[in-house]
Amino acid sequence: MKTVFRRSFKGPAGPDGAASYRVIMERRATVAEFIAQALEYRHEWGSITVHMEGSKDQHINFRYGTSDADPDARYMQVKVKKARANGGMSRMDYIVEI
């Protein structure tokens, strides 16, 4: 799979080590592709929130390469407009806007 995104430290880190990250989209990708790459970071845990204006946010929790759910199927093939992340050490939370 081609790289979907990369993260760039935005900082500053707080006392707990958490910081903001820019999520730089390497290519136009679907929500499904974004989630698949996030799950490749097998040393991380956290959440992915899929946000679409006017709709209820979809939340996914993940831990070390597996997720507890998938967002509604109608979101999975929608292209990501932008994303951001916050985390540190092994936790990373993503907000994906479609």
Description:
This protein has helices spanning 31-40, 73-76, and strands spanning 5-9, 19-25, 45-51, 58-63, 66-67, 82-88, 91-97. The protein has a seven-stranded mixed beta sheet with strand order 1-2-6-7-3-4-5, covered by helices on one side. It contains two helices and seven strands; from the N terminus they run E-E-H-E-E-E-H-E-E. By secondary structure, it is mainly β. The model has no long low-confidence stretch (mean pLDDT 93). It is globular and about 40 Å long.
Q: What is the topology?
A:
Layout: E1 5-9, E2 19-25, H1 31-40, E3 45-51, E4 58-63, E5 66-67, H2 73-76, E6 82-88, E7 91-97
Parallel strand pairs: 3-7
Antiparallel strand pairs: 1-2, 2-6, 3-4, 4-5, 6-7
Outline of this structure?
The chain is mostly beta strands and 98 residues long.
What features would you highlight for this structure?
mainly beta; 2 helices; 7-stranded mixed sheet; 42% strand; globular; 98 residues; single chain
Largest sheet: 7 strands, mixed
Q: β content, as a range? A: 35-45%
State Rg: 13 Å
Shape: globular
**Uncertain parts:** none
Q: Order of helices and strands, N to C? A: EEHEEEHEE
Number of strands: 7
What strand line-up does the widest sheet have? 1-2-6-7-3-4-5
Calculate the terminal CA-CA distance, rounded to whole Å: 21 Å
What structural category characterises the helix and strand content? mainly beta
User: What's the total helix number?
Assistant: 2
Helix residue percentage: 10-25%
Query: On the 0-100 scale, what is the average pLDDT?
Result: 93
